């Protein structure tokens, strides 16, 4: 089972952060949102990821290219051009990073990574800028039991600015 993560949006509503990095790389607790999403999927046994890169995707590629060295204790001997790894902190993840275009919409991004999931009977897809408390195993089981082509998980959020209850069109105190 693979998880596809859309990580290509501009993040215009939080430009003070996204001028420097893509939304999935904004940190929560010292780690990028993307990492937290991947930890959730990994908890449910999904450790193969396809990340659809777009805006500032090179920063996501650099993050994973240097992940091992950043998460480990190392000694770097510049004179000998060698690196000694002392304490390894790694994840059991296989990460495929695909440049799906800077202005590509969701469907186009999925089309561009289709060759990476074409042999899968089922795969998960999520956005790279949000976290949720979802039981992925239950979600996949429900999807398979119903025999559907796609399953969407969503939540009903409370109104952004409160709710005005007007029974019969009349506001009451």
TrEMBL record:
InterPro entries: G1P_cyt_trans-like (IPR013446), NTP_transferase_dom (IPR005835), Nucleotide-diphossugar_trans (IPR029044)
Signal peptide location: none
Gene3D superfamilies, per database record: Spore Coat Polysaccharide Biosynthesis Protein SpsA, Chain A
Stretches assigned to the Nucleotidyl transferase domain: 2-163
One Gene Ontology MF term: glucose-1-phosphate cytidylyltransferase activity
TM region(s), chain numbering: none
Annotated coiled-coil segments of the chain: none
Name of this chain's protein: Nucleotidyl transferase domain-containing protein
Species of provenance: marine metagenome
